[in-house]
């Protein structure tokens, strides 16, 4: 989570490996599209900034964040990627659904990440309200999509 000392998009670009020979799969949730669209824009822009060719960035959408688990798993099985990135936004509502979805996606992605031969990067915003999500998807605290791109490049190199 971002703090005033560590905004989501603040990093030393000179320490990011060259990504011109890398290929990435991105799975994006359609739920809260204003937020996930901004996460995707930031993620793609940052991958390209570090050299990834547009044709080597493959984006698939899923209906909601819970489906990110299946989507990421399929992309891993598909092969050909140096890393897979999931992007989603879960906003706390009046029901316990928030906790179930957050826990489910976190555990599901962690499981795939541990078992697969390529890294899976966790770009799920879990916020109390819309404003917090906006702040972290291109607002005053940066863009978690940018952060996920940098993490994916570093982990692909790893
Ligand atoms: C059902 C649901 C709810 C209540 N909230 C969100 C949310 O804030 N963000 C999100 O990405 N998805 C939400 N969903 C949908 C679930 O992720 C999932 O798509 C459905 O439960 C169907 O499996």
From TrEMBL:
Binding annotation for (2S)-2-hydroxy-3-oxobutyl phosphate: 94-95, 136
Give the source's domain of life in one word.
Bacteria
Q: What biological process terms from GO does the record include?
A: riboflavin biosynthetic process
Residues annotated to bind 5-amino-6-(D-ribitylamino)uracil: 31, 65-67, 89-91, 122
Task: Look up the record and report any one GO term of the cellular component aspect.
Answer: cytosol
Q: Which organism is it from?
A: Hoylesella buccalis ATCC 35310
Q: Where does the record place the catalytic residues?
A: 97
Q: Which Pfam families match?
A: DMRL_synthase (PF00885)
Gene3D superfamilies documented for this protein: Lumazine/riboflavin synthase (3.40.50.960)
Residues forming coiled coils = none
* Reactions it catalyzes: (2S)-2-hydroxy-3-oxobutyl phosphate + 5-amino-6-(D-ribitylamino)uracil = 6,7-dimethyl-8-(1-D-ribityl)lumazine + phosphate + 2 H2O + H(+)
Record's protein name: 6,7-dimethyl-8-ribityllumazine synthase
Q: Does the keyword Transferase apply?
A: yes
**EC number annotated for this UniProt entry:** 2.5.1.78
Q: In which pathway does it act?
A: Cofactor biosynthesis; riboflavin biosynthesis; riboflavin from 2-hydroxy-3-oxobutyl phosphate and 5-amino-6-(D-ribitylamino)uracil: step 1/2
Q: Do you know which CDD domains this protein is assigned to?
A: Lumazine_synthase-I
**Stated role:** Catalyzes the formation of 6,7-dimethyl-8-ribityllumazine by condensation of 5-amino-6-(D-ribitylamino)uracil with 3,4-dihydroxy-2-butanone 4-phosphate. This is the penultimate step in the biosynthesis of riboflavin.
What are the record keywords, sorted?
Ligase, Riboflavin biosynthesis, Transferase
**Family listed:** Belongs to the DMRL synthase family.
Q: Drop me one GO molecular function for this one.
A: ligase activity
């Amino acid at each position: 989570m971002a703090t005033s000392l560590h905004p989501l998009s603040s990093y030393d670009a000179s320490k990011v490996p060259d990504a011109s020979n890398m290929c990435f799969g991105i799975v994006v949730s359609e739920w809260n599209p204003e937020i996930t669209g901004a996460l995707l824009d930031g993620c793609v822009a940052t991958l390209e900034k570090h050299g990834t060719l547009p044709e080597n960035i493959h984006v698939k959408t899923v209906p909601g964040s819970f489906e990110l688990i299946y989507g990421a798993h399929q992309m891993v099985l598909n092969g050909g990627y140096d890393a897979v990135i999931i992007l989603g936004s879960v906003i706390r509502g009046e029901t316990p659904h928030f906790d179930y979805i957050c826990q489910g996606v976190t555990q599901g992605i962690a499981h795939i990440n541990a078992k697969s031969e390529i890294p899976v990067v966790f770009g799920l915003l879990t916020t109390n309200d819309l404003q917090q999500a906006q702040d972290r998807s291109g607002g005053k605290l940066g863009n978690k999509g940018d952060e996920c791109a940098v993490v994916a490049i570093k982990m692909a190199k790893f």
